[in-house]
Amino acid sequence: MSKEIKMPQLSDTMDKGKILTWHKKEGDSIIRGDVLAEVETDKANLEIESFDEGTLLKIVIPADESALVGEIIAVIGEAGEEVNISAETKSSNANSEEVKELVETKIESVPVETSSPVLNVASPVSTPNGRVKASPIAKKLAKDLNVDLSLIQGSGPAGRIIKKDIETFSDASSGQAVINQSPAPVASIVASATPLATSKLVPQMPKPMPVAIEIPIGLSTLSKMRETIANRMEIATDTPHFFTTVSIDMTEAIKLRASFKVNPNYSSISINHMIIKAAGYALTQAPMVNCAYKEGQLFNPGSFNVGVITSVSDGLLIPVVKEVDTKHILDIAQEARGLIDRAREKKPRPDDLTGGTFSISNMGMFDVESFTAIVNPGQGAVLAISSTTEQAVVEQGNIVVRPKMKVTLSVDHRIIDGLVAGTFLSAFKSAMESPALMML
Question: Domains in the chain, ordered, with CATH?
Fold first, then answer.
């Protein structure tokens, strides 16, 4: 029996992928783990591996063409087995359109319609609590166009209101034909993150060299990665943020790091890895910070997966260290190094960029005293790490110099309140000021 190979979602923000190269051709034998194709996504070029065995019966999406997440790109089965491509493709397109509507990345432009739009007004489908069922894209467009969702009958799955319903209603109401229209371009985007880097004392570390990037004069097309960042930041601006900052004494963390450096078994552990481990501990003490607001409900992912926001040449990638609460810091160090190295080389594995439930952003290498990061859509909080600097503090009536590091927690106020944010930061601060406890 044939198996459909569908375009997988290779990152949390991916809605489609372009087939760059097929590593197998029709008629080739396939075993589990074989690399079938290389795919260009909004973040990086990734390989698709086979989870099935058999013969590659048909390549549905050829090289240099794109497919939506969930769309059939190939069929594997027994040699000589007949494949009904038209039926396969029809089924795929229906599924992929639903996936496309649910992805919160951008509002796609729509084609010009020559016929007059039909005003579709009826009782919309609602949830038991009376909330109208609509996709995130439809909700955003309705808000922008000042359209009342309660007046629209949805044409999506189970009566869900989708983007097309909003456009049809709006244009019919105004008596205009549907036109091809995209949202206004973003004038500028301030990157809120750089790679997670070792916290430092200013006199001991050289300043980072600036990255030379050629920027053409005038308008220029955004890279796919930067376009994704821009669209996700537009979504993020709808999140009601609040920010809480604490100052952490890094004396013990720096001492522990120094002892690691002279021990071959622990020399790979950095301050960054302590930060990841401390974040995992703090999430267990304030698990609400690990949750997210989705479709008017609270979503608990069930695991603590920390994303490390990493700067690459044309944007940001967020490789994810999975289940940090259960891993020894040595395992975290090894895993994080591999993840970040692959991200910087723009060769991440398919599961490197998925599953994040909380993120860390670090600008410590730039002598940044304090900053706030923007919550990644689909998550509930992000932790911003600033530089560690020598500061004069008063201890028992005496002035002493201590290495201090400010961290700021940004949270989605729809689900996280001050008490929860404070609990997280208190636990994180305790872990960083007594880091030996994380070795147990």
Answer: 3-102 (2.40.50.100), 107-182 (4.10.320.10), 202-439 (3.30.559.10)
